[in-house]
Fold this protein.
Amino acid sequence: MSGPARRRVLVTSRSFGGGGTDFAAELDAAGYEVVRASPAHALDDLEPLLPGVDGWIAGTGPITAAHLDLAPDLRVIARYGVGVDKVDVAAAAARGIVVTNTPGANSSAVAEHTVALVLAALRGVPAADRRVRDGDWSGWQARELSALTVGVLGLGRIGRLVIERLSGFRPRVLGADPWVPADDPIFETVERAAADDLARSCDVVTLHAPGGQTVVDDAWLAASDRPVLLVNTARADLIDEDAVAAAMRSGRVWAYAADTLATENHGDGASPLLAPDLADRVIVTPHLAAQTREGVDGMGGMATADLRAVLEGRQPRHPVVP
């Protein structure tokens, strides 16, 4: 006689199991069948797979009601990461599908990448490397963090870890987050400010808000009283890329460093921030911030544990409420 049918788990996260732990092997040993598919989540690609899926470990691709209609047996979507803005959480709830995420798993990794981008942009490291390879050893004058004012927009897990890691450089730090009360202990070490205050008072501004609205736009940039270094390891929609590109050319923004762009194309459809004349002052990494071995293992472990909890009749630790 054959044994009980193995539950099927669809994995569309690019980095799942890419750290130090093979979570796919763990699922296999626990009686699950793991099926991998493209992280883009194109309906045509997933149409033959979704009808037999019980659980889904999903990356950053969209999950719409149309996807869910193809998956009548689906009981849990374990989002591999924090943001669920591309998941139709309400549609999932209406179908009795639990959605989870992995809060905090990669916060340290993103905070470290943020500081790396600040330092690389402040010293012009990528541009200097390119020039040396072309035989140009001429240098330029940079700034030290200890002499600057840094604004941190968003005081969640990552924003606080960035502040902690910056403390060794001893800059003046302003923190802005309308959801954090004035008596929060964070304001014992940083100065409380509004988002607009950061434009008027900071040499460096690093963004750690959840997205969904544009903060750095023409009005914000016009309020700046000095050339600013902008760093974005959060969401692309926090900035107006056309406005920032124009501000770089006018001198209001002297550098931009990010781990994401609103338009991830090349050629005619590329982001205005990838224009050749801005290359020496723009640093972009391809969603590397969370991609450390420790961060990947943290996300994989949390996503796997919550997926198994739902499919095995237990409460997940990190449910997302619609």
